[in-house]
Amino acid sequence: QVQLVESGGGLVQPGGSLSLSCAASGSISSINVMGWYRQAPGQQRELVATITSGGRTNYADSAKGRFTISRDNAKNTVYLQMNSLKPEDTAVYYCNVVVISLQSFWGQGTQVTVSS
Known about the structure:
Layout: E1 2-7, E2 10-12, E3 18-26, E4 31-39, E5 46-51, E6 57-59, E7 67-72, E8 77-82, E9 91-99, E10 104-106, E11 110-114
């Protein structure tokens, strides 16, 4: 089992920045991919970005050029730096990890609101 604790959400004005973090505990030696997803009201949960244990990254088109995912394997933590935020980035952001058995775990979610 893997437990995830997210932090860093909040309210920001358009054009602003926020940084999210997600710390993993439990069976952390089996973690392979870490990532962020988001879900806006009335929408399906969608990929934002993922990063493998080797550092390979993948971004949604909406995140490319504005968001950066990174990972500290020593701290078992994944980060999402979000710049140039837009109102359409407003959503609950969820941390996700996939372990080597392909089991998936989710954080509780953190609200990001982009509004003036």
